[in-house]
Amino acid sequence: MISIKAISQPAFETVTLDELKDHLVLSGNQEDDYLRGLILAATNDAENFCNRCFATQTIEEGLRYFPKIDIRLSRSSVQ
Q1: pLDDT tens track for 9-32
Q2: What's the pTM?
Q3: Which candidate, 54, 18, 23, 48, places its Cα nearest to that of 36?
Q4: Distance of alpha carbon 22 from alpha carbon 16, whole angstroms
Q5: 46 partner at 20 to 30 Å CA-CA among 14, 16, 22, 40?
């Protein structure tokens, strides 16, 4: 079993708050915190589903034991 932990977060969002608000035709800022949470959750779900990192970040992987074969990283960048 592999444990994966993000050490450093990406320097940019894959979808910005302004892009999401434009797409949803929203104005004002009363829902900004909620929308940022949705962006983060959707990005994390998509990265987990695709087994990829969409932006440069540092990932730590932990193994239960040292494998006898090659070690393969479970995630790779798409940049």
Answers
A1: 777 778 999 999 999 999 999 999
A2: 0.67
A3: 18
A4: 10
A5: 22
